[in-house]
Specification:
This protein is an alpha/beta fold. It has 14 helices and 18 strands. The structure holds NADP nicotinamide-adenine-dinucleotide phosphate.
């Protein structure tokens, strides 16, 4: 089996490395490259049963990445760095002829824009080079896209309504913390909410629309409409969708802190002058708050993420819910992680298996729903993420007739 190379050794990358390290039959050598090589070395110590090769890399430097790819000749690069690195890493993979995957769409650092256009532009050149890129293969995006593809393949003739629902009901005992990279997370949440309806992208003020949603094992929680990047690819690839929305729960305490940060300008992404030094407030805030990876030992409780769907099957209306529920404690027992990093970090390892074994082999740049969801979802429970389908589910979102 060939080598793989993971770029990024943070909260999510550490989970992906943990899952790759559990499969030496498939991944006998794993290169882990990150800006800070000591994080990579810690992963080597944490998984002594695996052959992990730590490397220092600035992934913004395309030539440096090409040199590392030429040195190690991996079959696949897994990008678990930040969305800013998507384009330089795709460029390096293209030039070195290496397959690529990531878990978040590219964002220009100065504009929190969530759109796949930058990465979709690489489709033809990847196709011509005979290499494959899989975009957004975390949980959401990622498994949520696969859930929709699975529903379309096995349960519907047409899907009309999609609501993705995401609830973290866990407690970590800190007044405020994010569950993955704070800068990336708060850029997303503080954006206007956006959703698709009848072919149009509709915008509402940030966190201004909410609805009660009932989550398995958790109960009813208030969920807020936010924009999430998988909506863009799903409405493109399932044009029968009349409406597609994304909902995430936040506790009152979380929102109270977040609104205070927003009100005083601490979530700003433009540099301000502080005594002659440029300071980006959101990066400063990130330095003050806990590193998401450090929350894991104390985190307790459920996380539930799923898709609620409505459409028709054999001429009759049908509703469906596909979801995963896991506990933070399970993620800690398996990989020393909390469940948000775990749900994001397990799917890239499963996708890596499919790509290096040729189960997913299709030159070009693809979103997850364009690939066969069956082999991915079949392997997910054994990798730590169980999931369930409920047909004729009483949806939380029946506000328009079928
Ligand atoms: N799809 C999903 O379900 C989902 C869910 C959560 C997160 N995510 C995505 O997962 C990714 C990782 O999130 P995270 O919480 O693990 O972030 P994190 O803890 O901040 O880790 C990011 C890692 O990337 C490294 N890095 C950053 N810039 C780099 C560069 N220029 N060159 C090389 N390495 C660089 C960092 O190195 P340093 O340690 O030196 O800073 C760090 O090791 C993000 O893109 C996030 O959007 C996806």
């Amino acid at each position: 089996m060939p080598k793989v190379m993971v770029v990024g050794a943070g909260a999510v990358g550490a989970v992906t490395v943990c899952k790759l390290a559990q499969r030496p039959d498939l991944f006998p050598e794993i290169v882990v490259a990150s800006r800070n090589v000591t994080k990579c070395q810690k992963l080597t110590e944490k998984h002594p049963q695996a052959r992990i090769i730590p490397e220092a890399l600035n992934a913004d430097d395309v030539q440096a990445t090409i040199a590392l790819l030429q040195k190690h000749k991996p079959a696949l690069l897994l990008n678990l760095a930040l969305p800013y690195q998507d384009l330089p890493l795709m460029e390096a993979c293209l030039q070195a002829g290496v397959d690529y995957l990531d878990t978040a769409s590219y964002e220009p650092p100065d504009r929190p824009l969530y759109e796949y256009s930058y990465q979709w532009k690489y489709h033809e050149s990847f196709e011509k080079a005979g290499i494959m890129a899989v975009l957004g293969i975390g949980f959401d995006p990622g498994i949520t896209n696969a859930f929709v593809a699975y529903a379309a393949k096995h349960y519907f003739d047409e899907i009309h309504y999609l609501d993705i629902v995401d609830c973290n009901a866990g407690q970590h005992g800190r007044p405020f913390a994010t569950n993955f990279n704070l800068e990336i997370n708060l850029r997303e949440i503080t954006q206007p909410g956006r959703y698709y309806e009848n072919g149009k992208l509709i915008e509402v003020p940030p966190l201004s629309v909410s609805q009660d949603v009932k989550f398995p094992e958790i109960g009813v929680r208030k969920a807020y409409l936010i924009f999430h990047e998988e909506l863009e690819s799903l409405v493109k690839h399932f044009p029968t969708l009349r409406r597609a929305r994304f909902w995430m729960t936040f506790s009152d305490s979380y929102l109270m802190h977040l609104r205070a940060f927003m009100n005083v300008g601490l979530t700003r992404i433009d540099p301000i002058d502080y005594e002659g030094h440029p300071v980006v407030p959101i990066k400063f805030l990130q330095k003050l708050l806990p590193d998401p990876a450090t929350l894991a030992p104390d985190y307790k409780g459920w996380v539930s993420i799923g898709v609620q769907l409505r459409g028709v099957y054999q001429g009759k209306p049908r509703t469906l819910f596909i979801y995963t529920n896991i506990r933070h404690e399970w993620a800690y027992a398996d990989c020393g992680s909390q469940a948000i990093a775990y749900t994001a970090g397990v799917p890239p390892a499963v996708a890596a298996e499919l790509m290096v074994t040729g189960v997913w082999k299709k030159p070009g740049v693809w979103n997850v729903e364009q690939l066969d969801p069956d082999p991915l979802l079949e392997r997910l429970p054994a990798a730590g993420l169980p999931w369930k389908v409920v047909v004729d589910y009483p949806l939380d979102f029946i506000d328009v007739p079928e």
